[in-house]
Every structure is written in C-alpha cells, then in structure tokens.
Amino acid sequence: MTTQAHTAQRELGVVAGFDGSPHSEGALRRAAEIAARRDLPLTVVTAYRARTQFYATYAALPAEPEAEVKRRQAEELVHSASTLLDELPHGPGTLTVVEGDSVGALAEMSRRAELMVLGSRGVGGFLGRIIGSVADALPAHAHCPTLVVPSREVPADGPVVVGTDFSPTGRRAVEIAAQEAVERGVPLKIVVALPRPDSGEYWYPTLSEGAAELIRLRRGELEQELDEKLVALRESVPGLEVTGEVTVGVPALVLKQAARDAQLTVVGSRGRGAVASALLGSVSRAVLHGADGPVLVVPAEEAEDTGEEQAGEA
C-alpha cells in the first residue's frame, strides 16, 4: 500500500516501537506481518532519554556516565527483539536506538517511514505511559499513518471500518482504508456520523429550521455524497466490496458501535470539528481510547496541511 507521495524517500518502511512489553511484542508481530505482505523494510526502534545530572563533588561522579548507561540498556533491549524476529515471516529487520523524547524521536522517524506501529500500552519511559502518552500523542505528530495495536485478538474475518466527514483528511482515510480492505481480502464499511444541531459538535449552514428538518436536509446531502464516493471507489479499486451508512448521533459512539466487529478501524487525524488548534481530533482521540481492536490514524497530506484542514478536527 502506498501511504505517501514520496515513497522512495521513506527508506525505514514499517517502523515498530519496542520496549519489551507484551503490547510492544504484539505490535512488532503485526509490523513484521505488514512489512512482509507489502515487501517493505522493517525497522525496530527503542528510544531512551538521559537526564542531566549535577554532582556536588568529583567523588560523586559515576564510573559510567548515565547517558552511556541508558544507551547501553536501550541497545540491549532492542536487540532482545531479535529472538522474536527470528520467529516471524519478515526476517531480521533493522534494530536501532534513538536518544530523545519518545514522541519527538518517533515523529521524526515517521518522516522516513511508510507506517508506524505501536502497542497501546508499554512498561514506561517509551511506549509505556499507557494510552494517553506515546500511543496517544504520536498520531497527532506523525508524518505517516500510525497503527496502534492492543493486546486483544480481533476477528480475522471482520471488516475494515472507516469513519469520515468528507474533509480532505477524512477522504484520505477512506482511500487508505479501501487499500487495507483489499489487501486483507475483507469488506470495507464507511461510516458517516451526523451530530444533532444542538450538540455543538458540527457546523450547520443554517439554524433557521427546526432540528428535525435540519437533520433531514443534512442527512440527504451526506447520503448523496456517500453514494457518489461508493460508486467512485467501486470503479477505482478493483475487487473492493464496500458499503456505507449515515447515522445520526455522537460521532465517536457511532463509529465505536459500527466497528465492534472490525479487524481494523481507520480514522483521519482531524477533520471538520469545532476546535481549529487540535492536532488530534476529538473523534480520533476517542476512538483510540475506546476501540477494542487496532486503530489506524491517517494524517493530513503535508502539501494540503493548510486552509480547510486547519479549520477543524475530526
């Protein structure tokens, strides 16, 4: 699957964050499967950060500087992944360590990656500050899609479900979700949520009509746009089985309900919400926190990261 326009420059391929936790081992297995299936390089990375230390006397200086200790520990940790890699289809992969804040280090690596893969929880200091930390923060800053993998097993025959609001990022999420569905040989389900006018979660062109009439009109517009998208996808993506629905309700809850049996849920990093400054939209964040299965967060195209994309959140 091509996830970025400049794939020739993304030499790291599929990047798996590894901290030795069971969640990161599961993420590494998933990353290796994807890399093998797409014939991409596999990179395994551990991040470390050495604190600045001050010592009152020369005698208090440690025999080995903390930065060197931290790096050696990180190298030992990432090389422990080699045993697991020997059992996986891709082969050895590339093992590397990076110094710095874990989110910043991984975000920088994502400039040269096709896909970042993280476990939803870890052991602390790297992936580990549970969801709400690296696995929560990286999708907002990554320059390629980020796959967050929980420990829970998901149905192997479940569909790929994508939530969209037809913003540029939402449309890109649909395109990538379609490629994921074809690659996995499963159906694609497109979900469009329509918040009620009094929820404050969505902008309606006019509030002069009653709520019921506004919903009816807007639902008709979205269903027409969805139908056009379904036709276009069936024509442009051979072999794709795709359906769609427009549902009135809170977007995060609508998407969670639709994705309860999904093997993968796909969302854009942000779309047409009410908070322009949010890097990761409220729906995307809620899905990351509430989904039972893997979640793929798709960022905006960097060339398009202006104008309408800066007008809201997913």
TrEMBL record:
Gene3D superfamilies documented for this protein: HUPs (3.40.50.620)
Assigned protein family: Belongs to the universal stress protein A family.
Name by which UniProt lists this protein: Universal stress protein
Protein origin, superkingdom: Bacteria
UspA domain: residues covered: 14-150, 159-299
Highest classification ranks of the organism: Bacteria, Bacillati, Actinomycetota, Actinomycetes, Micrococcales
InterPro entries the record matches: Rossmann-like_a/b/a_fold, Universal_stress_UspA, UspA
